[in-house]
Amino acid sequence: MKNYEMDKILKNNDIGSEMFDLIERLFPICRSITGNGVRQTLKILQEHIPLKIFEVPSGMKVFDWVVPEEWNISDAYIKNSKEEKIVDFKKSNLHVMSYSIPVNGKLSLSELKKHLFTLPDHPNWIPYRTSYYEKNWGFCVTKKQYDNLKEDQYKVVIDSKLEKGSLTYGEYFIKGEKDDEVIFSCYICHPSMCNDNLSGVSLVTFLAKFLKDKKLKYSYRFLFMPETIGAITWLSLNEKKVDRIKQGLIVTCVGDRADSTYKKSKYGNAVIDRVVQRVLQESMEPFNIVEFFPFGSDERQFSSPGINLPFGSLMRTPYHKFPQYHTSADNMDFIFSDCLKNSLIKYYKIITYLEDEKSLENNFEDIKEKSGDTKPEEIKEENSKYVNCFPKCEPNLGKRGLYRMILEKKINLGQEAIFWILSFSDGKHSIKNISEKSKISYSVIKKTVEILTAKGLIKKADF
Ligand code: ZN
Fold it and tell me: Per residue in 150-159, pLDDT tens?
């Protein structure tokens, strides 16, 4: 990789606009974790890179999960008794809760309200809601639409299909001189929202496009998958490749106006962590670094104790940290072509430095051995260590009654404690250590450990 390649990107004034245009084209498509919206999205990406599209059948067991039924939707609306459409899926696909079951009926206002979601703090925005693993239906509306509803008989139609089909994902692999590989992964399951995560989809596409036909030392794999279930599916089908993967980045929220934020890998000082921080320092722009936390996006699957890879995430404003997140306000006005280009340059530089890194593998192994407690300890409850009984990716918490089926905007403490414990129950970290790392009180961690032990998700390490 030569510097003139970088110059080509820097000098290409149109690259940011091209990334922006791709997002604009993908924006109207109704995507979910399965279905035709994902296929249509991947087909468009194939115009840029020779992406391979994979279909994994519904019902297939993938680690602790099962590939869900495929969801497709053609129309949905709410009409008042005057036959006026007051909520219309065709105006915004966010109006329908993703994975809503088909509905066709008449409802009173009070019955209808049980299925409506709003954002009281932002009366003009539509929230984004999903119900992937619990059969339910719902409409997401602005607070204004909600407040305008009067006593009436409402006709409610959701013309959706939930049936055996497949989960679709895309993959593009560039073979380098070595088998050791680096992964850039983004998720393609979100409907009409830009920063989260069409910005990531566009960046990974253009990054791959630039690397195509280059002579590279390492191999690079670009993944376009539905979040969580897609990463679990991919890792389950590609378990044999895990040893070759040396590091990776989850690409998300890379198009907004804010400074860059890097979420470190679980190891904190893996090669990828050092390289990303070097790129940020050399950028001469302000940036933020956050320590790893075991929730967020797919880094938590790649970093789970049974997979154990250093995966970080280079973003601008992280998910959950911008009010527009998971709402209709995360639209084309929230992202900027110069910011997309700026993010792309940083990712490209990361690859340039990775290619230069001489002792990639050795460093990687060093870090792995250093993680966990090393000091001898007294035999005390707080020093006890646990092992995760489902160490490959995250276990399915929903089927054990441990996950709220409709994803809320805010993650509560109990949920966070579960993720911390599952992620660090590797026989090396004590519960006290997990409490310190997570900054969650020892009593909450201990209580959660008891619940997870009773559910058979973790057990005391017997050494
Ligand atoms: Zn999201």
Answer: 999 999 999 9
User: Which residue type is seen at 42?
Assistant: L
Tell me the CA–centroid distance for residue 163 and ligand 1, in Å: 24
pLDDT digits (tens, 9 = 90+) for 338-388: 999 999 999 999 999 999 866 454 444 444 444 454 455 566 788 899 999
Distance 176 CA to ligand 1 centre (A): 32
- Whether the link from the prior residue into 433 is cis, omega within 30° of 0, is no
Using DSSP's 3-state secondary structure scheme, residue 92 falls into coil
Quick: pLDDT tens for 111-157.
Answer: 999 999 999 999 999 999 999 999 999 999 999 999 999 999 999 99
Give distance in angstroms: CA of 409 to centre of ligand 1.
Answer: 10
Q: If you ran DSSP here, which 8-state letter would residue 456 be given?
A: T
Q: What is the 270 CA–ligand 1 centroid distance (Å)?
A: 26
The answer to whether 300 and 419 have CB atoms below 8 angstroms apart is: yes
Comparing CA positions, the residue from 184, 434, 387 lying closest to residue 297 is 184
**Ligand 1 centroid to residue 459 C-alpha, Å:** 32
For residue 186, what are the β-bridge partners?
224
CA of 375 to the centre of ligand 1 (A): 39
Nearest C-alpha neighbor of 183 from the set 241, 262, 230: 241
- For residue 383, the CA-to-ligand 1 centroid distance in Å is 36
Residues pairing with 85 in the sheet: 79
C-alpha 169/C-alpha 187 separation (Å) is 9
Q: Which amino acid type is present at position 432?
A: K
pLDDT at 88 over 90: yes
* Separation CA 248–CA 182 (nearest Å): 5
Long-range contacts of 88-93 (CB under 8 A, 24+ apart): 89/30, 89/158, 92/126, 92/192, 92/328, 93/28, 93/30, 93/191, 93/192
- What separation in Å is there between the alpha carbon of 227 and the centre of ligand 1? 8
For residues 391 and 236, give the distance between their C-alpha atoms in angstroms, rounded to a whole number: 12
Query: Residues of 414-426 as b/e, b for ≥16 C-beta within 10 angstroms?
Result: ebbbbbbbbbbbb
Query: From the CA of 134, how far away is ligand 1's center (Å)?
Result: 19
For residue 316, give every residue at least 6 positions away whose Cβ sits within 8 Å of its Cβ, in sequence order, or none.
195, 253, 254, 255, 256, 257, 258, 259, 260, 261, 339, 343
Residue 300 CA to ligand 1 centre (angstroms): 14
Tell me which H or E stretch contains 85: strand 85-88
